[in-house]
Amino acid sequence: MAVTTAGKRIVFTGGSGKAGRHCIPYLLSRGHQVLNLDLVPLPNPDVYTLKTDLTDSGQVFNALTTHMNPGGYFGERIEKIDAVIHFAAYARNMLVPDNECFKGNVLSTYNVIEAACKLGIKKVIIASSETTYGVCFAQGNVDYDSFPLEEDYDVDPEDTYATSKLCGERCARSFARRFGIDIYALRIGNVIEPHEYEKDFPDYINNPSSRKRNAWSYIDARDLGQICDLCVGKDGLGFQVFNATNSTITTKVPTAEFLKSECPNVPLSREMGKWEAPLSNRKVREVLGFKDVHDWRRYYKP
After folding, report:
1. pLDDT tens per residue, the chain (302 residues)?
2. Measuring CA to CA, which residue among 76, 81, 77, 69 is closest to residue 8?
3. Which one, of 56, 48, 43, 41, lies nearest residue 11 by Cα?
4. Across the strands, what pairs with 125?
5. Sequence-separated (6 or more) residues with CB below 8 Å from residue 269
6. Cα→Cα distances 19→2, 28, 35, 98, Å
7. Which of 134, 182, 194, 246 has its CA 20 to 30 A from that of 201?
């Protein structure tokens, strides 16, 4: 299981979105080259955006065999892509009708993974979601089965968006087995941009019941970039699922005390850290070496 730190050639889908526009600068800072596949441009002079419909497999195959930017025509040949990071998707329910959400998310994920595998790309990272744990878009007030939420949890969501993400995980597992490559699925928590701490965290911290659907957890968009970089650098794991969250719970009260009060009927499957986030990032810390840089308490003092 090698760790590679040299700069890679990365295709990033959905890089113009909320998470991507912070992840890509982090990847650039680590020495990687990035081509963004999206329907709208990323306002970053160091990254070229190729307008691509990912539900069209022909466009995906072509996009993964093109130049990183127009300057590529001055080289001797088209250089092979080292890794694909697939974040493009309808980001939640009710942006489009449910059948379109399911079709767009599943088909684009299938197309990206299939093209990468058949073109010999050995590393694919896909965006799954915290919603797969079944509460975020559940109807009514639903409890989790147990805490912490870890990658071996029996994910059983009822909504279309989360189901589309589980289908993506299933596709990833199948292709990783068939082609013997690394495909890592990130169950991404509620993404927080830098400006949102001041705007949103006063309500999050002072009205904790509003955060149940996000399991009182989050991921700073810049730390998500770190996780992407760690995934690119860690080889030989095959198919893996990683929770992509920051380390601490978004409450004033320690984790076990808070969960006992807020979710009295939900058991703990193990002892939790004093301030451990219920959507636990223990695996990504232990396996990939993730370091929580942007803890919410740096930016908001309750």
Report:
1. 555 557 999 999 999 999 999 999 999 999 999 999 999 999 999 999 999 999 999 999 999 999 999 999 998 888 999 999 999 999 999 999 999 999 999 999 999 999 999 999 999 999 999 999 999 999 999 999 999 999 999 999 999 999 999 999 999 999 999 999 999 999 999 999 999 999 999 999 999 999 999 999 999 999 999 999 999 999 999 999 999 999 999 999 999 999 999 999 999 999 999 999 999 999 999 999 999 999 999 999 98
2. 81
3. 48
4. 85, 184
5. 146, 147, 148, 150
6. 27, 15, 15, 23
7. 134
| Strands 182-188, 48-51: pairing kind | unpaired
Has this prediction a pTM greater than 0.90?
yes
Place of tokens 């991404």: 188
Residue 10 bridge partners (DSSP): 34, 83
Sheet holding 83-86, edge to edge: 48-51, 33-38, 9-13, 83-86, 123-129, 182-188, 239-244
Which stretches of 86-195 are DSSP H helices? 98-118, 160-179
CA–centroid distance for 19 within its chain: 8
d(CA 38, CA 33): 16
Phi, psi dihedrals of residue 137, rounded to the nearest 5°: -115, 30
